[in-house]
Amino acid sequence: FLPSEYSIGCHKGITSLGLLLLQFDEMLKDGLKIDSFVVSSLLGVLSNLMYLELGKQFHAQTIKTGLEFDLTIGSSLVTMYSKCGNTGDSDSQKVFDLLCATNVVSWTAKIAGYAQNGQGLEALQTFEQMLGKDIEPDAMTFVGV
User: Fold this and answer.
1) Which of 42, 57, 114, 116 could join 122 via S-S bond, C-beta 3.0 to 4.6 A?
2) Distance linking the first and last C-alpha atoms of the chain
3) pLDDT of residue 88
4) C-alpha to C-alpha distance for 106 and 99, rounded to whole angstroms
5) Angle separating helix axes 120-132 and 104-116, nearest 10 degrees
6) Nearest CA-CA partner of 78 in 66, 86, 70
7) Mean pLDDT by 10 residues, the chain (145 residues)
8) How far apart are CA 81 and CA 31, in angstroms?
9) pTM summary value
10) What does the alpha-carbon distance between residue 4 and residue 8 come to, in Å, rounded to a whole number?
11) How far apart are alpha carbons 92 and 78 in whole angstroms?
12) Which pLDDT does position 20 carry in this prediction?
């Protein structure tokens, strides 16, 4: 549970990078554990703002802290790289390939990434691969397709 002053994940409307980083810095100073929820929330904001370089820095931090293989963070990284135009054989694909397990969220992140970057054929092919792995699509998957 995060006290109300640490509301990074609750404010999807954050558009000030300075505010985001200030809140994150305060959390670190106060000794709060940085977990998958916090990191994926930060990556979500960075991907919406298309701050690829800062996103890469947070990705490096996940590697240092051993959170890189966390499914929630992995899906957030796939989304972040995809929203910044890195699909295919790039960082988005590499992160996806490193996930120890996948689920509908990680597959949907990959599909949506292709779709958002005008790669409709790749999105459909990825959807077929997902179905081949017996993963049931959800409503968000169909939005991506």
Assistant:
1) 114
2) 35
3) 65
4) 9
5) 170
6) 86
7) 42 60 81 82 87 88 84 93 82 90 95 93 96 96 92
8) 29
9) 0.80
10) 9
11) 5
12) 73
